[in-house]
Design brief:
This protein is mainly β. It contains 4 helices and 75 strands. A hairpin with a 6-residue loop joins strand 71 (907-914) and strand 72. The termini are far apart.
């Protein structure tokens, strides 16, 4: 066997007189080059060694100008042969890329090794093959001496997502699982490969694979098909919105679908060895719209357990934003699970008869594709910076984090949200799946009976095609009129109908091609989405009783293709309306929900499994009125592993838990104050602020100060150097406020919906001296941070380059700092906005002569700024109509909550809460408010909801202000 020639990664710098060629990599293609200036390897910040950063392109002297390489997450890390081995990945490169196989020396101050056998691609699979004593990682096989052999991507063109033990010849063969869906086997001695299945099961974005109990279990977590469904051997296209991804098993002769849900990790007690020849359990985890799903195969039978979600960044139906949640051993006997932004203790003994021991450790912001214990440290791999739909980063880059298990507890709170049912049809006497309640400080069960959201739209956007996916609640309750689409190659027809009373017509207009309407139509904030993510703009116009004419849509959105016909939603302005179709128009009325008074009460029996042994005992009964809602706290002294619920009658039920912490990071601790001491406070008159950008032309960080000076901060020496003016970069990084303000609160406008967030100190009401601070930016791959009015938020993405899902945000921390910009660079979080006299301290780097400085740390340092706080509400001295809904105001993620209500007249103000962030509104309480007599209400400590809104019984000038402490 030929020993690998090991190449060590260095960065060298050439003359400053050529600013666009300021860094050069000693890449694999040039093994003999001696760098003029090597990278500093002594820098260690918040668990991160910048010299261990990985990139997507290595052939362009540090720049990034190559298609298909826009991501470089670290997909797998494994201690082996005295080193830490890892691979990084491209987004979609089954035939290879410039991404590399690396090894890291136990002495972390040594440069990282890039192996010449690297073939890149999109790998995350890793396995230790016991019989041959080899590490299998991506396309590589590495022996105990560190010698590398590689299966050519041309011979096995797959994205290696998992490697599993073979069912019939485990000493010689292994299974390779492809993200595209194919299954291969390879001989670990000869490297001979064979494709066994092209795509045996439906779903998309393959993830896990593991063998035990005589079967291979695989998973995928998306619902985009690849190729033709005729390749699938079992199952087929998704039958409904719930069917996304798959969990499937193969017994050596037949495939079987276990569940059509989004699943990722598949593993078991043998862990990274890829499986067992015996009868050990198999564990797998995934999710649906309700909660995280944890399944165990125990003695041939699958059991399901449910856990909360700390964050919603993984939830998109395509599955792209879940780069490899894992269950893995981290120390002798200690295992850890990572899913939906939460680390959990995970017992190696977990089975259907011994399910005790799962406990939340804490939540995190870092995007973690893999983790392990090595050299006395807990190591987290990261997918840090992607440039897919992210123009504010020059090139992708990712790094490792080194720390301890105890460090994780100093990050985000152990708070999570989810439940067994969200408006599900449930049967009398049938228990829900068990839901984790162990390890959380405060536990609240939201119980509701009946449908609270607008019913699913079963109609088409036109009379003959394109299913409506989402629609504003008000529109969903209105009758609608449209016509058939017919031939896409012809303009969409207009239509007419008649009404017997005055009406307001809301008109949904296909956005494609930007069609124009007469100025009498006024744009609204309503939204309608349909088909494959298409969206309408909704306008309104009042009409008297009589004939209503809706214009055609002659807009050609692409050559030869015309838009959809408009759809009219009819709201009466004078009692019950009768709508008569004229000629080709079609009238559809929504289903009328059953009144709450017509629905019987439901008694839910809450049962707990105290020991995790499957023995369930009754805890208490909770009665929910027909069509009603109850917020039910669990006893604070309750010691139990799992909760389940049993209804006494058939109904549509919601059981959704908010489980929150009583422990938040204390920003006033001396070590936390010291961490951010160099960042300018709000009352500092002078700051070193500006715009930051991870460079595209080299590995450096570019910095434009608030007074328009240009610098680079070098990867090699961690030093500032002057740079040439670059107006193009300045325009790219220009900041326009992402939010607005009124007297009540911060206002976010997105996708036709207005959301309100708390305010911090009044100094945030206006720009800093250098301008408005940046409010929104992708920092971890496919995850955005918002820094708005003194609070950082995590804002999940649904599609790269599209606006985030503001309805699912969570607050991270609040501060009183003049942070002007932020980004990720070489594994570090970078913050600008520094005190001019701040001293270097290991986080703050400055150049006294040049008068520039920046702060560097880890993404999860942000929690240590202090727990989220703020003041605001949807109304402040606001004139409101009777029954008018306020805008939703954020409630999730805050600790102590106090409400103050004021009114100009005697009224009853009803508070409603959205319990899951998806518009599931329920009435919380009604408050009788007298004029000039403010009413104060402190929410119970355990109460938590996603959003809150208000209604007044009569017209009034009203304030509804919440104080979060």
């Amino acid at each position: 066997m030929k020993r690998s020639i090991l190449l060590t990664l260095f960065v060298c710098f050439v003359a400053e007189s050529c600013p666009h060629l300021t860094a050069a990599e000693n890449d694999v293609a040039h093994p003999g080059i001696t760098p003029s200036e090597s990278v500093r390897t002594d820098i260690h910040i918040s668990g991160i060694y910048p010299h261990l950063t990985t990139y997507g392109v290595y052939s362009q002297n540090g720049s990034h100008e190559k298609d298909g390489h826009n991501e470089c997450g670290i997909g797998a890390i494994v201690p082996w042969a005295g080193k830490l081995w890892m691979v990084n990945y491209a987004p979609h490169m089954p035939r290879g890329s410039e991404h590399k196989l690396f090894s890291v020396d136990a002495d972390l101050t040594k440069p990282m090794t890039i192996h010449p056998e690297s073939v890149g691609g999109t790998p995350a699979g890793r396995m230790i093959h016991k019989e041959s004593n080899q590490l299998l990682i991506a396309h590589h096989l590495i022996d105990a001496g560190g010698n590398v052999r590689t299966i050519k991507p041309a011979d096995m063109p797959i994205r290696v997502t998992a490697i599993a033990r073979h069912l019939t010849d485990p000493a010689n063969l292994v299974y390779y699982i492809d993200m595209e869906g194919s299954i291969w086997e390879a001989n670990v001695h000869t490297l001979a490969v064979k494709r066994l299945f092209k795509k045996p099961v439906p779903g998309w974005h393959g993830k896990g694979g593991y063998t035990s109990q005589g079967r291979l279990v695989i998973s995928n977590n998306g619902e985009l098909h690849v190729g033709n469904y005729s390749d699938v051997l079992v199952g087929g296209k998704a039958k409904n919105e719930e069917e996304r991804g798959v969990l499937a098993e193969y017994d050596g002769s037949q495939w079987k679908i276990v569940e059509r849900r989004q699943y990722t990790e598949v593993t078991g007690p043998k862990g990274i060895t890829g499986g067992s020849d015996g009868n050990e359990p198999i564990w797998t985890m995934g999710w649906d719209r309700r909660s995280v799903r944890l399944k165990v195969l125990d003695d041939g039978q699958w059991q399901t357990y449910l856990l909360p979600k700390a964050a919603y960044c993984n939830d998109a139906s395509h599955g792209w934003y879940t780069e490899w949640p894992r269950i893995r051993e981290i120390t002798g006997g200690r295992w850890m699970m990572d899913m939906h932004g939460m680390f959990y203790d995970f017992p190696k003994t977990f089975s259907a008869t011994n399910s005790a021991g799962i406990r939340p450790i804490g939540s995190h912001l870092r995007y973690v594709p893999d983790f392990c214990q090595w050299n006395g440290k807990l190591v987290l791999a990261t997918d840090e910076t992607s440039i897919q739909g992210n123009p504010l980063a020059g090139q992708p880059q990712s790094n490792l984090w080194f720390g301890t298990y105890a460090d994780l507890k100093s990050w985000g709170p152990a708070s999570g949200y989810g439940g067994p049912w969200i408006e599900d049809n449930v049967a009398a006497g049938v228990a829900s799946d068990p839901f984790l309640i162990a390890g959380f400080d405060r536990r609240l069960v939201h119980l509701a009976v009946g449908r609270k959201t607008a019913p699913a739209i079963s109609a088409f956007r036109a009379a003959d095609q394109q299913k409506i996916n989402t629609i504003s609640k008000e529109l969903a309750q209105l009758p609608r009129v449209t016509v058939a689409r017919g031939d896409w190659h012809q303009p969409a027809a207009g239509f007419e109908f008649a009404v017997d009373v005055p009406v307001t017509v809301f008109l949904a207009v296909d956005r494609r091609g930007s069609p124009k309407l007469p100025s009498t139509w006024k744009r609204t904030n309503h939204t309608v989405t349909w088909g494959k993510g298409f969206e309408d703009t909704v306008y309104s116009r009042d009409f008297p009783a009589g004939r209503v004419t809706i214009p055609d849509n002659p807009t050609e959105h692409t050559p030869g293709s015309f838009g959809m016909p408009h759809t009219a939603f009819i709201k009466s302005r004078g009692g019950q309306v009768t709508i008569d179709a004229i000629e080709s128009s079609v009238v559809t009325r929504p289903e009328t929900p059953k009144l709450a008074s017509e629905q019987p009460s439901v008694v839910f029996t809450l049962q707990v499994d105290r020991q995790g042994n499957g023995e369930w005992i009754d805890l208490e009964n909770v009665t929910v009125p027909g069509g009603g809602y109850v917020a039910h706290p669990l006893p604070s002294n309750l010691e139990a592993q799992w909760l389940r619920l049993i209804p006494n009658r058939d109904c549509i039920a919601t059981a959704f838990l908010h489980q929150t912490t009583s422990q938040y990071a204390n920003g006033d601790l001396p070590e936390n104050r010291s961490l951010f001491a160099g960042i300018a406070d709000l009352d500092d008159e002078q700051t070193i602020g500006g715009l930051v950008y991870s460079a595209k032309r080299n590995r450096n960080l570019r910095f434009i100060t608030g007074d328009d000076r240009y610098y680079e901060f070098s990867k090699s020496r961690f030093e500032f150097q002057a740079d040439a003016t670059d107006e193009k970069l300045k325009n790219l990084l220009a900041i326009t406020p992402e939010f607005s303000l009124d007297e009540a609160s911060v206002i976010i406008q997105s996708r036709g919906q207005r959301y309100r967030l708390p305010k911090g100190p009044a100094a945030f009401d206006k720009p800093f001296a250098s301008g408005w601070p940046r409010a929104l930016r992708e920092v971890e791959s496919e995850r955005e941070l918002a820094n708005i009015h003194g609070t950082f938020y995590e804002t999940p993405l649904i599609t790269n380059g599209a606006p985030p899902a503001w309805n699912l945000i969570r607050p991270i921390s609040s501060h009183t700092k003049q942070i002007t910009d932020f980004c990720s660079w070489n594994g570090l979080l970078v913050l600008s906005g520094i005190k001019p006299d701040a001293a270097e301290d290991g986080h703050l780097f400055r150049d006294q002569k040049l008068g520039v400085a920046l702060w560097f740390g880890g993404i999860d340092d942000l929690w240590k700024l202090g727990k989220p706080v703020g003041t605001g509400g949807p109304w402040k001295e606001t004139s409101v109509s009777a029954g008018e809904e306020s805008d939703p105001y954020l409630m999730t993620g805050y600790d102590r909550k106090t409400l103050t209500l004021k009114s100009s007249v005697a009224t009853t103000i009803t508070a409603e809460v959205d319990i899951n962030g998806e518009g599931l509104w329920v009435p919380y309480d009604a408050f009788s408010v007298q004029p000039r007599a403010p009413l104060s209400y402190e929410f119970p400590q355990e109460f938590s909801a996603s959003w809150i809104r208000f209604r007044s019984r009569v017209p009034a000038v009203v304030s509804a202000i919440l104080e979060y402490e």
